[in-house]
Amino acid sequence: MTRRPHICEVAPRDGFQSIADPLPTDIKIGIIRDLVAAGCPRVEIGSFVSPKAIPQMADMSEIAAAVMDLPARLCALVPNIRGAENAISAGVKEVCYVFSVSEAHNQSNVRQTVAQSLDGLAAVASALPSDVALRIDVATAFDCPFDGTVPLDDVLAAVRRCAEIAPEAEIALCDTTGRANPFAVRNRFHAAMAVEGTAGNVWAYHGHDTFGQGVANALAAWDAGVDAFDTAAAGLGGCPFAPGATGNTATEDLVFAFNEGGFDTGIDMDGLLSVADRIAALPGGVVGGHLRQVPRNRAA
Amino acid sequence: MTRRPHICEVAPRDGFQSIADPLPTDIKIGIIRDLVAAGCPRVEIGSFVSPKAIPQMADMSEIAAAVMDLPARLCALVPNIRGAENAISAGVKEVCYVFSVSEAHNQSNVRQTVAQSLDGLAAVASALPSDVALRIDVATAFDCPFDGTVPLDDVLAAVRRCAEIAPEAEIALCDTTGRANPFAVRNRFHAAMAVEGTAGNVWAYHGHDTFGQGVANALAAWDAGVDAFDTAAAGLGGCPFAPGATGNTATEDLVFAFNEGGFDTGIDMDGLLSVADRIAALPGGVVGGHLRQVPRNRAA
């Protein structure tokens, strides 16, 4: 029982960007504060992207300034060197660089070839000050909304390159569409962890619950030795460029599994459910998850 | 890849009894036929219970007569010797005897003490002709809606007694409320399988998705060596005596995990989803599950 699952709450990024009308900045800041108050040890506070591409993230510097002193790991997504520079300027100490293994999805998501994105990763990695950590989101590591099953060899080649560029970075295999199955998750993590040069890397899993596999997939990753998991309170969110990818795995559903299984997530279920209820009440959000539906005295 | 998961479709029992107004008999028969046509290898066709207790099951003999020649294993639930006799008279070749480990739930469900229910099991086991198989549903094997976590020792004592009475029966540990977690499922099956005298028993898992753990729990049982799983198409159902226990694990969600993982369930996803859609359209049913919500061209 010495392993400790490490939940990264992504509702403020993967979730808020899924709501068409940008939320007021103070609402976003309040939810991030409440997530940390509920014990969330890590929160992805948003994306440093072009406000033209994703207007929901236009207020990132203001948000970062307001939350950066909270007692949690706070990371922000960046799609390129410009985003990384803006994140660093805003005081962010952990940047999450994203690219897709699938060419079709990478073009749709960041308008680059995979090779260009890997060059961008190298640029970001070399630009980071020593006190800023790097995480790499390897999107469509299982399934692509355009091309279906992504070849394992392509994933492993991408992982190898990530490890060459950033041998100590955290690498997240991301089930962008939610169509991964638990057997594939376990197998692909085992294969990725066996890639030469990855001994210094740390692993994470980012999943969606679209196909009902969210909790099972995360636990399959846990079985493979992964300790870090992206989830969103109330299951808010999805990928705007992945048709059918509605709904991150609900934080409360995965935390329930770990808490009840005797593993300490550090997250207080009552506090988490309160924030999840607030998130579920946001206008324009698509939410999911199961635990909010059960009688509250049975949830924790 | 030699293991083969064995799905038992329980919508016609656990599901139909959850719909307050009894469904027309021909609708029930049609759905059972369609489930078998979709490749479901095993269907629980209903309960031989007092029509006063559960009026939804008053037409069991008629249903049995209509479906008993279908190419599938067809089982029926029985709470007592009278139900077993009626099932045998109706031609059923597999009876499923149910009792709860928790005294409070057993009283609520079958109006007996656990000791009385175990005596009833012995009576049923000795009354069965040699060509009728016995399955034992050990309900509240994890959590009781009245008493919370059920002590593992109580479960193991019940399992030991089941194996003494019926050393070759199938024994299902049932998560009646859906509140089990995957770690407990794995641990409790390991412990049950280690009980002396169970070497000749076969194991099954019956779960609900109420707390979002349905697929993960079933796969935890699979990891422990369990090959048989109860699920309900469209997630129809619940336990009328277990408050909050809405929703069996959806057959399509678990079949997706196995089919995509390369294990042959024998079930055709398109056919299954067609039946699930029909079940979801039944008036008065509470349904769930994820796979019916995704674009159909991505489901199979």
Automatic annotation (TrEMBL), chains A, B:
Pfam family, one: HMGL-like
Keywords: Lyase, Metal-binding
Residue ranges of domain Pyruvate carboxyltransferase in the record: 5-273
GO MF annotation: an example: hydroxymethylglutaryl-CoA lyase activity
Coiled-coil region(s): none
GO biological process: ketone body biosynthetic process; L-leucine catabolic process
InterPro entries, sorted: Aldolase_TIM, HMGL, PYR_CT
EC number, as in UniProt: 4.1.3.4
EC class: lyase
Record bears the keyword Metal-binding: yes
PROSITE patterns documented for this protein: PYR_CT (PS50991)
PANTHER family xrefs: HYDROXYMETHYLGLUTARYL-COA LYASE
Family: Belongs to the HMG-CoA lyase family.
Name under which the protein is recorded: Hydroxymethylglutaryl-CoA lyase
Protein source organism: Profundibacterium mesophilum KAUST100406-0324
Encoding gene (name): hmgL
